[in-house]
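Lecture notes, part 5. Sequence design as translation. It can be helpful to think of inverse folding as translation between two languages: the language of shapes and the language of residues. The source text, in structure tokens, appears below.
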């Protein structure tokens, strides 16, 4: 499909620079089949789902993966993308033309790395010097890797260390938050339990590739970046039991959805999974594992807007986004939510 089919106009003032407070006070657009759109809030979620439904969350934890350093006189920015080894990470570099293989980059706070080879995606391998765990180095020298559309409008600050982390965050490794789950609070979870709505967690370490623009003109020519995910056998069994008993699996975020679909076989049975996935979901895809999606509002021409269009229909999602823009919904990572029920 042509990429320009997924374009739309978004006023810049619709981009949220801070999350709603409290988190579950964010607005939520209900897109329920072909029924009229409903303007709700995240707090309404227990009344919008059915007893026996299960919300599936991503428990990845965002690491402070953004570094600023110097290679000689050249200023270099690095966003870690994927762990390759104990002290080795792939990174997207800003001002990468000034870095050659073997160069030493000083990120301050006694954190240095040697630049390695560049791969076909433009990522550079960084070998961190010393014997401290890289996670400790990042806590000392790194910043939270806010999306470019926020970071270009204001500096990252201490608030972002908590704002850009979900209440489910346990497994270190993401360089972008699974932002749909930023709306959840312990109080909301308690109300969901009381309404008979369950929850499960899986792990998909979100990579910086999620923010890269689609440069191809056609979806057939776009190549997704790999991200590592895991669903253990016990979790897979419980998820399959939910659907077998008539409950629905509602993915909280496109990351949870992509991992569930990667792990499901042709018959819709979710298998244990511990591997990388490059799954690219566009209109025409047959969903196997999920029955709905809670997600924020995504960028024009992004792979994530393609995914929601595959779930609900391209025309339907253009109409939903036009409604959201007209009604003043806040967009992107710190923005409002939507509940999509095909």
């Amino acid at each position: 499909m042509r990429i320009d089919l997924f374009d739309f106009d978004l006023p810049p003032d619709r981009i949220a620079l801070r999350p709603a407070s409290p988190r579950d006070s964010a607005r939520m657009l209900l897109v329920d089949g072909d029924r009229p759109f409903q303007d709700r809030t995240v707090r309404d979620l227990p009344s919008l789902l059915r007893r026996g439904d299960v919300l599936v969350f991503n428990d990845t934890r965002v690491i402070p993966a953004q570094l600023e350093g110097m290679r000689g006189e050249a200023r270099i920015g690095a966003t870690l993308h994927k762990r390759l080894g104990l002290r080795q990470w792939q990174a997207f570099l800003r001002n990468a033309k000034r870095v050659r293989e073997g160069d030493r980059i000083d990120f301050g706070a006694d954190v240095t790395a040697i630049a390695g080879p560049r791969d076909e995606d433009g990522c550079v391998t960084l070998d961190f010097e010393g014997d401290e765990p890289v996670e400790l180095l990042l806590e000392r020298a790194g910043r939270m890797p806010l999306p470019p559309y926020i970071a270009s409008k204001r500096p990252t600050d201490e608030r972002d260390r908590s704002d850009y982390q979900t209440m489910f965050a346990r497994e270190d490794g993401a360089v972008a938050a699974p932002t749909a789950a930023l709306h959840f609070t312990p109080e909301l979870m308690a109300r969901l339990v009381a309404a008979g709505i369950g929850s499960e967690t899986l792990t998909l370490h979100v990579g910086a590739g999620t923010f890269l623009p689609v440069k191809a003109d056609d979806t057939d020519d776009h190549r997704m970046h790999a991200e590592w995910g895991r669903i253990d056998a016990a979790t897979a069994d419980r998820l399959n039991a939910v659907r077998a008993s008539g409950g629905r699996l509602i993915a909280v975020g496109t990351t949870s959805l992509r991992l569930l679909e990667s792990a499901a076989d042709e018959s819709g049975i979710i298998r244990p999974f511990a591997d990388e996935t490059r799954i690219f979901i566009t209109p025409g895809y047959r969903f196997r594992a999920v029955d709905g999606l809670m997600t924020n509002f995504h960028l024009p021409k992004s792979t994530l807007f393609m995914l929601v269009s595959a779930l609900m229909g391209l025309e339907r999602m253009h109409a939903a986004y036009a409604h959201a823009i007209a009604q003043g919904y806040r967009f992107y990572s710190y923005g409002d939510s939507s509940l999509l029920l095909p």
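The translated text above is only one of many valid answers, since several sequences can fold into similar shapes. The radius of gyration is 20 Å.
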